[in-house]
Amino acid sequence: MMGATEDTGGDGVGGESGGTTGGKYVEPGGEFTRDQRYIATRITADGRDGYPVEPGRYRLAVSYACPWANRMIIVRRLLGLEEVLPMAVAGPTHDARSWTFDLDPGGRDPVLGIERLQEAYFARFPGYDRGITVPAIVDVPTGQVVTNDYAQMTLDLSTEWTAYHREGAPELYPERLRDEIDDINAVVFREVNNGVYRCGFAGSQEAYESAYRRLFDQLDRLSERLAGQRYLVGDTITEADVRLFTTLARFDAVYHGHFKCNRSKLTEMPVLWAYARDLFQTPGFGDTIDFDHIKRHYYEVHRDINPTGVVPLGPDLANWLTPHGREALGGRPFGDGTPPPPPPPAERIDPTHTPLR
C-alpha cells in the first residue's frame, strides 16, 4: 500500500505553499496541525486516473527551498528522469497569491507561460481553496495541475515511470523492503520532517516543548539506528534516506535557529552529521541543495517568526565536504546500479549557494 503510512501532502502553511509573504503561520495558544488535503490524482503507467506516463507531457514545478520538493528533485535525478519530466523552478519566496516563476526571463515559466503556479491549479479547479503547494506536476497540453500529493509522487517515479529510468538507476523502493521503508517513513515524517514545523509554528510554550522533546527523542533513536548501518533500510540508498536527508540538510541553516530546534545542531550529533555528509557527497543529493534559496525562503517569508526578514549569513558550509567515514559500515549506495551523471547545465546550483565547487 504505497504511501499509506505517511500523512501525505506538502506544507499548507508556508515552506511549500504559496501565500502572503509576511503572513500568519502560527496560531496562538495551540500546536501546529498540517493541512493534509491534497490532489490525489496519480500519473501511472496504465493511465487509470486519466494521466498516463508520457515523456515530455508533464512539467514538475518545484522550489529548491522546499524540503518536500527537494525529495522529488533528488529521486528524479537518481532515476535519470530529467528529460522525461522537465522541471519548472519557482523562486525561493512567493507573493500574496502563490509561488512565482520570477527566476525566468519575464517572470514566466517558458513552457507553461504562467507567472504563478496558482494559474495551473485554477485551470483545473477554479476557486481552489487549499494550499498552492510545491512540488506539483502540471499537464502541459492543458496547463492544468495533475497532482501535488508529494508523498505518492516520489513513489510513483520509482514504480510507475520504470520504462524511462536511466540505465543503472537504483531501486529506491524495492518491493522486498517496502513494508520496512513505509514504517520508517511514517515515523520520520511524524516526528522529524513534520516535527521541526511543530516546533517552529507552535503557538504556546507547552506545544513547543512537547514538539521539541518528540523531535530530539526521535533524532536520538535515529542516531542509534544509524550508528551500526550506513543507510536506514537495507544496505543501499532508499526512499527512506531521501526523506530524512532533506530535513537534515536544512537543520542548521534554518531549523536550529528559526524554528527553535536548538538542543543540538546537526554538526553536534556525530552519527547524523556523518550520515548527512555521506549523502550530501553522493551524486544526486548535495548537488540539489541550494542553501541560499533555503535560507531566503524561511527567514523572508515567515515574518511572524522573523519580523525583520533579515537572513543570517551563517552557518559556514564548507564542513559539508569533510570526510564522513561512513564507508567503514559497508553498504553500496546505488546497489547494483550506478551514480547519476552530473545535473543538466540548466539545473546546476549556483556555486555561491553551496559548498560544492
Automatic annotation (TrEMBL):
Keyword Transferase: yes
Site (Lowers pKa of active site Cys): Y255, Y298
Biased composition (Gly residues): 10-22
Name of the protein in question: Putative glutathione S-transferase
Species of origin: Micromonospora echinaurantiaca
PANTHER family recorded: GLUTATHIONE S-TRANSFERASE OMEGA-LIKE 1-RELATED, GLUTATHIONYL-HYDROQUINONE REDUCTASE
Residues that bind glutathione: W99
Entry's Gene Ontology cellular component terms: cytoplasm
Ranges for domain GST C-terminal: 148-301
Record region (Disordered): 1-30, 328-357
